[in-house]
């Protein structure tokens, strides 16, 4: 029997609120153009993607408002913590994202920043549609019911 391949990802930042506020559609994995001090700071496990967003207007995808704190040992060669950073995607992927935003009124939300198996920093972004308040309540009800159902099945069997 073949062994399962386990994914070795070191998640640096996770946008848990995005899964509650948005209906997640198609998910893309994008590289991110970083300077040396940004990579060092990410390896320390400190970053925030909660308020960030992605724009693909100029033919290239750029992530805005992602907070990567300054690397303390870098001295004067440090980076700006909230600077716009270029995302590395194929042109077809960028066109697909741009069409979804323009035609269907979707938004592009970053879900997490992580290091892949090769040690490269990646951003997981998704095309998403915003939820209304009643949709959020229904999602919470469904989640609670699934948890209660699991508990009942576990206690019974």
UniProtKB/TrEMBL annotation:
InterPro entries named among the record's database cross-references = SmpB, SsrA-bd_prot, SsrA-bd_prot_CS
In which domain of life is the source organism classified? Bacteria
Instruction: Cite the Pfam families for this sequence.
Output: SmpB (PF01668)
Where does the record place it?
A: Cytoplasm
Q: Which GO terms describe its cellular component?
A: cytosol
Please classify the protein's predominant subcellular localization into one broad category: cytoplasm
What SUPFAM superfamilies does UniProt report for this protein, alphabetically? Answer: Small protein B (SmpB)
Q: Which GO terms describe its biological process?
A: trans-translation; trans-translation-dependent protein tagging
UniProt keywords (A-Z) are: Cytoplasm, RNA-binding
Alphabetized GO MF terms: RNA binding
Signal peptide (residue range): none
Note whether Glycoprotein occurs among the keywords. Answer: no
What's this chain's function? Required for rescue of stalled ribosomes mediated by trans-translation. Binds to transfer-messenger RNA (tmRNA), required for stable association of tmRNA with ribosomes. tmRNA and SmpB together mimic tRNA shape, replacing the anticodon stem-loop with SmpB. tmRNA is encoded by the ssrA gene; the 2 termini fold to resemble tRNA(Ala) and it encodes a 'tag peptide', a short internal open reading frame. During trans-translation Ala-aminoacylated tmRNA acts like a tRNA, entering the A-site of stalled ribosomes, displacing the stalled mRNA.
Q: Which HAMAP family match?
A: SmpB
Question: What protein family does this chain belong to?
Answer: Belongs to the SmpB family.
Q: What name goes with this protein?
A: SsrA-binding protein
